[in-house]
Design a protein that fits this description.
The complex is a heterodimer of chains A (242) and B (351). Chain A has 242 residues and is mainly β. Chain A is built from three helices and 15 strands. In chain A, strands 3, 4, 5, 6, 8, 9, 10, 11, 12 and 14 form a ten-stranded mixed sheet that branches. In chain A, strands 1, 2, 7, 13 and 15 form a five-stranded mixed sheet that branches. In chain A, strand 3 and strand 4 form a beta hairpin. The longest helix of chain B has 18 residues. In chain B, the strands form two sheets. Chain B has a two-stranded antiparallel ribbon with strand order 1-2. In chain B, helix 2 crosses helix 8. Chain B has two domains: 156 residues, Cytochrome Bc1 Complex, Chain D, domain 2; 136 residues, Orthogonal Bundle (Cytochrome Bc1 Complex, Chain D, domain 2), CATH 1.10.760.10. Classes of the chains: A mainly beta (242), B mainly alpha (351). Chains A and B meet through helix 1 of A and helix 1, helix 4, helix 5, helix 6 and helix 8 of B.
Chain lengths: 242, 351
Amino acid sequence: MKPLLAICILLFTVFLCAFTSKKETHVIVIEFKHKVGEKLLKLSEENYINAWGEPFVVNKFRYYVSRLTLIDDNSDQIELKGAYHLVDEADSTTKIITLTSSLPNITAVQFVIGIDSVKNVSGVQTGDLDPMKGMFWTWNTGYVFAKLEGTSDSSHALAHYFTYDVGGFRSKESALRKIVLPTKHSNTLSLHHLTINVDINKWFQSKHDIRIRQSPVCHQPGELAMQLADNYSTMFSVGDIN
Amino acid sequence: MKLYGTILILLLFITIGSWVSTPFKPTPLAFVVPKGWPQPVYDFKHNPLTKEGFELGRTLFYDGRLSKDGNYPCASCHQQFGAFATYDHNLSHGVNNLLTTRNAPSLQNLAWQKEFMFDGGINHLDVQFLAPLTAENEMGETIENVVAKLKKDTAYKRLFKAAFGDETINTQRIGRALSQFMVMLVSSNSKYDKVMRGEDKFILPEQLGYDMFKKKCAVCHTEPLFTDYSYRNIGMPMEEGLNDLGRMKITRDRNDSLKFRVPSLRNVSITAPYGHDGRFFSLYNVFEHYRNKMVVIPQTDSLLQHKMPLSNFEIGQLTAFLRTLTDTSFLKNPMFAPPGYEITPVFIHNH
């Protein structure tokens, strides 16, 4: 029996090794940099002016990045499986996502702003999807995909608040937006740190014209939410690549 | 080779066995589907019922710490002796002397229900509790505060460990435990049920009422759950001040204006007042609405475009039948009383 046992242990070890052996991988850091035009975003402090000349202060800025995917020149993809990442301006650690990649030549980064429908209909989730994170409508079940809240003298809402809470997972009111950002011809060796610039001005002027004066509040899925989603889907652009 | 294979598998088992030091073995709790009922829609696979999970849910359901000032547990508006509706109240009461805009619905047979609230805005039982918990005019609390309060209590650490395998307390576990308690609130043992099972017999007015019920009411209040869970406009004009558009608030579709979920009629005799805003104080008020007071608008249900003719005689027989839907074994089931009680004490009714 003894030699048999030894052989078995050996086999088992080989088996384990086969499973744990790695392809060559390296770490890529993706950093979101929040700006209003050219200025860096400062919460609750600075007064900005949008394309319509409306002054505004931002108190909250959050959005869900999901299905973050790296694509290489062979159209191979690496998806951060099951990962839903809440980016929150108030917490700098959330603005950095670290990925491990084995792709040789990354040409694009792709992600979705929002939470796919299955997670909206299957009860309470954990982690970044915990309703405790304040990105969840309790009275009409569903995630808030992105949130831009602040004050503006142009707002006729109570206390001059403007509150854009955008969501909607049902097909007719879908606020899910896919973002594809080409990273030029960077290859693995040079792509370690990718900055994605995020321009809040796009919320007000991009595919649609949205004025705080006219629409200071969005608190439910629907047309305004979809228009805001169209607009903010253009707020991302590739910045520095190191 | 067979021997090698066997040994390999044995080795694997030993390795796995050594990783798992203390096995987590909660006691399964059986969910019994009453005879002749449809299959429940609640997904028990993602949240297997256990005695420990149920007991944790029951403890949470009766714990005032889920509210801002400590006085408004779930049970303050959902009282067992009122079939888990609020006994004798039209609009529910919340913290700071605030009123809500709706009448608390009874909680029963929830495992068969897909959507919640009178407008169906909530799509899963596990997330339902978040609405009253965070509403300023209900429990007025935040999830963070509730989790923090529970974490301070070592008894809860034990209860969560027993129910879920470790001491983690989070939103998901609170929701699942509450669901385990709530899906067990099955009412299926009224006189009506006994008659259907051949264990009892209707007296004449009950039988006449039942025959009438099947003709006039059962299309929407479908047996055996006594609701088809649809949203309908029954000609209740909007109450000024409450401005409750019902289903339209959720779908933003004008066709859904003033539509509300068809409520179950189980235990209906003890769940007065009636209607989404509790505007009907007695069953007679409801019948009077259907035969006289309805305000028919284009969105009003096609079955009620000409209101519903009802004679005094018919109202009497229908009332006799509806009384057979009272299930005292449910209203007094010690399993559903606050932890440590055999029967829900009257002091729970303090608002």
